[in-house]
Specification:
This protein is an alpha+beta fold. The protein has three helices and three strands. The chain has a three-stranded antiparallel sheet with strand order 1-3-2, sandwiched between helices.
Length: about 80
């Protein structure tokens, strides 16, 4: 993301739209993966209600994504979930 676009609420609105879409369809959680080394990622997602989840506690689909990212050579990835 370009820094001149940060702080405008775009990310918050996109996450809110994703959450509304998921709730309307009966989903119970949202998940994402992100780079741990990007300083603003974790705090931003945490402020939106996401929590980091350990690999052994990940749902199967999220674990598969996380494992695939590790296999691609991205060791600093983490997974986060938000219960709806």
């Amino acid at each position: 993301m370009r820094r001149d676009h940060q702080g405008r609420g775009i990310g918050r609105r996109l996450l809110a739209a994703a959450e509304a879409w998921a709730r309307e369809r009966g989903f119970r959680l949202l998940s994402l993966t992100t780079f741990r080394a990007v300083a603003w990622n974790g705090p931003f997602y945490a402020a939106q209600g996401f929590v980091e989840v350990a690999p052994e506690a990940m749902p199967a689909g999220l674990r598969a994504v996380h494992d695939h990212e590790l296999a691609l050579g991205w060791p600093d990835r983490c997974a986060m979930i938000k219960r709806l």
